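Researcher: Please translate sequence to structure tokens.
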Amino acid sequence: MNLITAFFTQSLPGRTILGYVLIFGVPTALPFLFVKVIGFKGLRHLFSYEPKQSIVHRLDPRIKVLYPVLIGILSVFLNWDYVYLLVVFTLIPWLLLRPSPGRARVIITMVGIPVIGAIWSQGLFHTEALSTKHLLFIFPQTLSWIGTPGLSSTGLLYGLQQAGRTMAGVLAALILLFTTTPSEVVWAFYKFGMPAPVGLAFSAALRFLPQMMERMTVLLQIVQVRGYDLTIPRWWQVSKWPGYLWRVCACIPVITIPLLIGSLRTTSVMAMVVDARAFGSHSKRNSLHTHSFSVADYIAITALVCLTLAVALLVLLHIGNRQV
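Model: Translation complete:
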């Protein structure tokens, strides 16, 4: 054990191997973690609107559209001592919503993976001038082409601060996605004085990636049914990995062309549906369902106003304002 530790910490080949693992190991593992926890199959249904009778669903769409924008702005002004209090505030709607286990798994993954990536990337590249005291591991000369001297403790702390802002923004944005229908988003944008096509484009963009992932999953299954082997080898089966990577690269054109054609076909169908419903034919838009403020809406507005005033007070008194 001591020999292995000495090899990876004192010898040049060992430090080089460990450096490559630190640099590329986490970024490579994150996509595999995403696929392992969620998978591409059915992602469209997990990452979209969920009909449910909850107080969050009944909130006015204008509040839910404004909510992630406000949270994102407020998170910019707070330091990391207080930005995690903002994260706690964004957890309150989720406690009221009580998502299903499948949705909860999506939420944790969508929040956790960007956070891990942000912390690790800042730990590698957010360093202090010429000082090396903060470096947890100094990269050897063979890794000088990377452009970073090593893994920094101050960088990890800075990444943790940035991760709080990421968590607050993602949690607030997912509330809008999971509890608001496309028609409600269009209606909210129209009430804000923006053109109705802006709301339509926004709602379509939110659902483009899940739809594309589901199509890709179907195409991969079709390819495998026809005899193409895409089984992932075990990590210890080193001899099988080159063949697997070659098959994946050869499969990319086979998947990309029908994926592109399917996306264009879906866009064409959406355009025909929009035209059939005379979307945008009149400057004044009518809606079957109209929304008016309820008691819950006024409570939500009061909470957001109080949150904004609290953040403004912390910043003006130089208590919670960010230093970097």
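Researcher: Any highlights?
Model: The radius of gyration is 24 Å.
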